[in-house]
Specification:
23 helices
Amino acid sequence: MSKRGRKRSGRTRPARKRRRAAERPAVTGAPVDVPSAASFFRFCFLDAESSGLMNRATTWLGPFVGERDKDAVTQIERATSAEEVIDLVPLATGAGEPVWQERVRQFGPEAVPLISQRLAVLHETQEKQLRDMMLEELIGALRWQGDAGAWVLRQRFDDLDNYGRCLACVVLGLLDERPAADKIWHFYQRVVRNHRQNHFVGALWGLVDLRDERAGEALVDLIAQGRDFYELYGFLSLAGDARVIVPLLSRVAQEPRENEQAAMALVSIAHRVGRDTFMAELDKIATQESAQERRAFAERFFSVPESRAREYFGWFYRGLTAEDLARVFPARTQAET
């Protein structure tokens, strides 16, 4: 994994892709074929295995990366204190990024207050791309700091810009920081109104990972509005409730381009809510069919094992695999390297 930091010509980094994903329009009917910045960030910091996989993805940028970044790597490796490592965060790009993250983790709790101090003044950094890169690294580093990291993110949340808050929501969810749920929900309500950016996806990840019921409420509104984004059906599989059954059934029937994803999300929801609830929702729209026909139709979803839906939306339920990475990002990676 790699990000944009210092001004160096010819650099292409996955974090730049994250920021471009965050800035792409999330409008009704707009096809979205890659994950948002928030999801890409979550891939990177979900667990140790995913982080390692994303770090190895630096090789996509070509063999020149190691040579180009060797001076940065050397500086990071030679740092003798947590403060010095935190000061070197602008060098955490390309081959320097996994080295920087590793050094921060080596200092453990000692690095936490230093990260907090840096987040408090990061808004003073004028160059947006540099500021975004440092947000990613500093917030990502807090993911491994447990309760102390969660506390810093809650304390500094209002000091961050929307991109930073989006990432903070992701990490708060991964850290299972349930006291942050209201803060995440209020942020979601504010940013979801902006149809030009998809920072709301980070808030949704936070709510879903915290198993907050308001995630289901948000999904009801989003599907009712026709808001299409890459993570929609995966989120529905994870957290959709009975209220989205009817609109999903409508999509299965009316939108062949999307019906497979909608159908697999319905499989997850059907197993979660049970036959009685599913049939009650189906009865609302299948008014011309007999009871036997409705039961037969519903059985199409219950006959599919829930495990198959989990595998269909694989990376929503587990860490990334190399196959996931190649399937999700190949075209974009090749086009921008």
